[in-house]
Amino acid sequence: MYLSKADIQSMQKVERLNLINSLSGIKPANLIGTIDQKGKENLAIFSSVVHLGSNPALFGFILRPQGDVRRHTHENIMSTGVYTINFVTTDFIQNAHYTSAKFDVSINEFEKSKLTPSYIDGYDAPFVKESPIKMGLQFVEEIPIKSNGTTLMVGQVEHIIMPDETMNNNGHLDLGALNVAGISGLNIYYSLTKKIQFPYVRKSFSLNDLKTD
Predict the structure, then answer these.
(1) Which pTM does this prediction carry?
(2) pLDDT digits (tens, 9 = 90+) for 164-178
(3) Distances in Å between the alpha carbon of 92 and those of 29, 47, 137?
(4) Domains of the chain as residue ranges with CATH
């Protein structure tokens, strides 16, 4: 199959949306938790969280264009300056996916999806109790992407919560052991399995030096 730019542009909207979203491969499934200044909690699923740097520890995610649909996640982050990123596992995929509905601002997505908010002292944004890996972030900046009206939201990690012994001596996490889920497109979910781990590659290595751990 070959598709030109013209072919892609002539596709039916939903078909094109699903195809182009799937071409980025399997992405992380994360729930972003926020709260407004009146204490109303919000929870939404995202598949665009990306690591931006380790020192400082920065993560970004993409917000769709601001338009007729209010972006409660964006509004809450801009008003409070804090938010959480929570890993979705295969144990609660259905609950997590339900947060993708365009609920009215008065609706609490934690309650609708039957997920549990949890808090730590001195930090206002809600974590997802059911998530094995949770991060609390401080908003740093938003970067508009002029070509399509989306926005890259950048935050710095202030808190990490995860089970004991999740991290090995080198800092690696076995996400497969935690049943972490991934997303292809907008609504196809995958389970993750650790297949192999290689050492850090140095230019003096030969291919045979890549012995697995």
Answers:
(1) 0.91
(2) 888 887 888 889 999
(3) 11, 16, 23
(4) 14-209 (2.30.110.10)
